[in-house]
Design goal:
Layout (H helix, E strand, L loop, with lengths): L1 H15 L8 E8 L23 E4 L1 H5 L8 E4 L3 E8 L7 E5 L3 H7 L2 E9 L1
Parallel strand pairs: 1-5, 2-4
Antiparallel strand pairs: 1-6, 2-5, 3-4, 3-6
Length: 122
Amino acid sequence: MKKLIFFIPVILFLVTGNLASSQIKGVRLTAYSNEVGQTDSTPNIAAWNNPVTEGTIAVSRDMLKLGFVRNGSIVYIHGHGIFRVNDTMAARKRTQFDIFYFDNQRAIRFAVQYSYYVVIRY
């Protein structure tokens, strides 16, 4: 399994021809929905005025400040798929992605997971 993780950047480059970073990084994963209490006062609009959709991830602000990702970045999260950075998380969160689901129960069941990600398009 670990060998596969190291081949992901090569595969992504061959498929997309546009690999922004070949560095694989570890990340803490959680999930959220557009339920009251999990978002701000506009639950269907993300941080940069993007609509939230399945395939949206919110990113912790430290990752934005460090330049790992930015608004609109496309990332592959091992075991979960390809996502677009469309939202930010609360300032207290660190080194974390929050995957958006319309189904609140699915978000709750997701709990906390750990994985690896690679930026496909910065």
